[in-house]
Amino acid sequence: MRVKKPVTGTKQCLIWDREHETMPRPKLEKLQLERLQRTVERCYERVPFYREKMDELGVKPEDIVTLKDVSKLPFTTKYDLRENYPFKMFAEPMERVVRLHASSGTTGKPVVAGYTAKDLDTWAELIARVYTSGGVTNADVVHNAYGYGLFTGGMGFHYGAEKVGATIVPVSGGLTKRQVMLWQDFGASVLCSTPSYALVLAEQAAEMGIDTARDLNLRVGFFGAEPWTLEMKKEIEEKLNIEAFDIYGLTELIGPGVSSECPYHDGLHINEDHFLVETIDPDTGEVLPPGTPGEMVLTSLTKEAFPVLRFRTRDRTIINQETCACGRTTARMMRVTGRTDDMLIIRGVNVFPSQIESVILSVPHLEPQYVIVVDRGSTHMDDLEVLVECSEDLYNKGAEAMKEAQEHLSRELHQVLALNARIKVVGPKTLQRSEGKAKRVVDLRELSH
Ligand SMILES: [Zn+2]
Predict the structure, then answer these.
(1) Total count of domains within the chain
(2) Radius of gyration of the chain (CA)
């Protein structure tokens, strides 16, 4: 049963908040300055952490006279946020905080984000912009497979869909077979999930004999919350027969909704009326001019409960301030394929897991299901092993064909990334699947000391 008809032609470039998303830059910068000044005042008055830091640096709220003065303010790191666990960064009393979310906190305490009612409304507006930039309207059925809970993905995309007036299916992660059944029965036209889970869903659909082009209504997808490569994006688009949009967000800033792609897919539009962006040299902290690659630093401009000054994202990107073909004037960030925190150093070679993924997907018949294992043996040398699944076709050709793919990947990793890795090509569906963020890297070096 088809409940709603899909909307065709995403290049029509719908814009949710035309006033703010297409605001001329001088006007936008004036608005940013007003909002920055108010944010700094509130941080200084209400958050002891910021008052102490600003006093140390000898900077007062009234010193923020132009946007460039943001560089006078202290940075905030993930470490600072954990040190102030759980509520010490909040600028509002708990009576005004109506919801909490938190990061996964796999290494120590999580980062806790608080929201006032107004913050939640802002967030829904931002996600409404994300959906609208992908052509989603009230005629769409949104299948939301992001996890509901402390993680910001599920509820963020939930309330944004309601804001747009689309029909939301709050399915969350898990029960993969049922998810595919619901795609068919509810006529889902939009998918929201992590990229890795989108592939798991595609695999399940294929197993159930579903032709995604013929049997499903799916048209677009919004993917993020983990680094993914352009090759992976292509795989998702082909396997699900959809247009994939990259989204970006951080629990520390608001969750998803910081930036997202438009139909031109040439960088992610940052919602600059809510977030002030800078690029810095990660080693010296020096501010770099727009267009120079560096670490992205973000300041919240409208958040009430949990304002953040100059948050160091550890994400490396390039900011482009030119007006986009879609009509938006907001700056675009180039897609992020890895965090500086995720960078592996293997025998002195710096490498992002996403770079390894790109090489894997350049080899025919290898699938975007892989695990990277780094260990240090008795020789105290880093040892890299990559386990990767092959296609059903290759598997059926037998051991010799799999060995060939293994050697091909080994050669490519050496030539492209200067890595010497042991490769193990395994059969389809042998590696563990994740219903949320995929665990791609297992680093055993810390344990072997
Ligand atoms: Zn655009």
Answers:
(1) 2
(2) 23
